[in-house]
Design goal:
By secondary structure, this protein is α+β, with helices and mostly antiparallel strands. It is built from 18 helices and 12 strands. It has a 5-stranded mixed beta sheet with strand order 1-2-8-5-3. α6 packs antiparallel against α11, α8 (195-216) crosses α12 (284-315) and α12 packs across α15. The protein is globular and about 80 Å long. It binds protoporphyrin IX containing FE. Protoporphyrin IX containing FE binds next to α6, α12 and α18.
Length: 501
């Protein structure tokens, strides 16, 4: 074919693509009754979608201010999403069953589950059941292991020099520590310290988000091709299987030989997963996939939340002393136990305030309409539409948090004191006005584990280090990509080892 022919074919393909994309966007005209942020035409909305990539917080804030208590929509590259605002609608959302507004199907689209985890991980979510039940139930007995791993990880990662301040690029180090500490409970020693295992878990989690975002940039009809081209799941599972085979296979054989009566099973995530899996899923591949999925759910969320908190502490180093005094008093009395963590009221409040002030996502709750759904104000959500909840504007709203624009680390512990130890002010509690862990049936099942781990990590750091920023009060800016907010990945925090007293 000559170059003119090639040009004509290329042009025809480009025009066809454009028509499909415009058709795809026009489908969303059923949403016309819901106010849009930015231009709302089939073509012009693309401008808003590109703006959303870098300026999502400003667009959602604008929508919140104009439509507080109601809803609005913002354009993403592949779709409009409807954003709910305020506790009344969040409470209403909580009550809607999965077959009407579905968490699983929203995740299926957002994370392109078919090409990343595989649909089986959602259809048989026994890892969620294990997180909700076994992990929370066993936290008490396993907590000494968690604390031992925190000690070991920070010993390796943090500066040991006793004589001065040392700078640490904090995010990658916290990510390493979080990976080791979480996996101490997921896969145990010595694997939780294996650099190969650590790299696999961190890369897999990152790649899932990157690849799913890329697939979502293409029109729907292209997803099967692009999704299959981009997926790295089979190779990640193979790598994970190679690493975990001796452990998992050994346990499966022991169970088989003892006809289910093997009493010496180690108490960790692998054993719990084996325990609850049905015949079809009791195999190396399925267990490895669940370990990858759990690390995906646990690592970046926990590492980002904790890094935000550490940066907030370094920005306001005056709070090191009260946190240290509390940790010292409680741990001297109760040791590094789960019960001690329950008594760290100021620490709990500090971390909760940090999640309020520095969220990791604008939309912690996402659902997909499985059929047309009508909210109590009469707004119709057409089938296939994604409904999300705006967190940061509500978390920074004076109506729900007095002095909302200020970082007040002990606001929640004070409220507990004043209101008779009301549990709703605890870090792991959710409510319709506080949603970093979501709310309702799908609220994060790992939040009790995450809260205890973050408290123990922060207690370790304040007891062993003085902490500050190099330039007082200049917290490095957060990094936004669409609705996701990462603490600055290059941010550095100064640490000075404290002498034992
Ligand atoms: C600070 C750390 C964490 C944050 C901020 C966080 C946040 C969230 C949020 C917002 C959701 C969705 C809730 C909803 O839609 O209502 C969620 C779900 C989930 N999280 Fe977490 N999470 C954290 C740590 C963890 C950890 C440590 C684990 C596992 C050990 C975990 C496992 C899960 C799972 C399995 C789900 C899906 C629940 C379901 O399918 O119903 N998360 N998390």
């Amino acid at each position: 074919m000559d170059s003119a022919g090639l040009f004509v074919y290329g042009l025809a393909v480009a025009v066809a693509l454009l028509l499909v994309i415009i058709y795809d966007r026009c489908r969303f005209s059923e949403l016309d009754a819901i106010p849009a942020i930015g231009p709302s035409g089939a073509l012009t909305s693309w401008l808003g979608a590109f703006r959303f990539i870098k300026h999502a917080p400003a667009m959602v804030q604008e929508g919140y201010q104009k439509h507080k208590g109601g809803m609005f929509r913002v354009p993403l590259i592949d779709r409009w999403v409807v954003v709910l605002t305020g506790p009344r609608l969040i409470e209403e959302l909580r009550k809607v069953p999965e077959d009407e507004l579905s968490f699983d199907h929203a995740m299926r689209d957002l994370l392109q589950v078919k090409y990343t985890f595989g649909i089986d991980a959602q259809e048989y979510p026994y890892h969620v059941q294990v997180t909700r039940n076994h992990l929370s139930r066993n936290l008490q007995v396993l907590f000494p292991d968690v604390c031992g791993e925190i000690n070991h990880a920070f010993d390796a990662i943090m500066p040991s020099d006793q004589d001065g301040w040392a700078k640490v690029r904090i995010y990658p180090e916290i990510m390493k520590a979080m990976c080791r500490v979480s996996n101490r409970i997921f896969v145990g020693l010595p694997l939780c310290r294996s650099p190969e295992f650590e790299a696999l878990q961190q890369q897999f989690a990152l790649q899932v988000v990157l690849r799913a975002t890329l697939v979502n940039f293409f029109p729907k009809f292209a997803h099967p091709i692009i999704g299959r081209l981009l997926t790295n799941t089979p190779s990640s599972i193979r790598r994970c299987m190679a690493i975990l085979e001796p452990i998992v296979q050994g346990r499966l054989e022991n169970i088989e030989q003892c006809k289910g009566e093997w009493n010496a099973q180690p108490n960790d995530m692998i054993s719990w997963l084996i325990d609850v899996s049905d015949k079809e899923h009791r195999n190396l591949r399925s267990i490895c996939l669940r370990i990858l999925v759990l690390n995906f759910a646990a690592l970046h969320t926990s590492a980002q939340s904790f890094t935000h908190a550490l940066l907030n502490l370094a920005t306001y180093p005056q709070y090191c002393t009260p946190l240290r005094e509390e940790a010292s008093a409680v741990i001297n009395q109760d040791g590094w136990t789960k019960d001690a963590m329950k008594k760290l009221n100021k620490m709990d409040s500090f971390l909760k305030e940090s999640q309020r002030f520095s969220g990791t996502t604008l939309f912690p709750m996402m659902r997909k309409a499985m059929r047309p759904f009508v909210f109590s104000d009469g707004t119709v959500i057409p089938s296939g539409t994604h409904v999300v909840v705006a967190s940061s504007p509500m978390h920074l709203d004076e109506e729900y948090f007095e002095g909302a624009s200020e970082f007040q680390p002990f606001r929640f512990s004070k409220r507990r004191q004043d209101d008779g130890e009301d549990p709703q002010f605890l870090l792991a509690s959710t409510s319709p006005s506080y949603i970093p862990f979501g709310y309702g049936h799908h609220a994060c099942p790992g939040r009790f584990f995450a809260s205890s781990v973050m408290k123990a990590m922060m207690a370790y750091l304040v007891l062993n280090y003085d902490i500050k920023l190099e330039k007082e009060g200049e917290r490095p800016p957060d990094e936004w990509f669409m609705m996701n907010c990462s603490p600055n990945r290059k941010a550095e925090v100064m640490f000075r080892r404290r002498r034992p007293t």
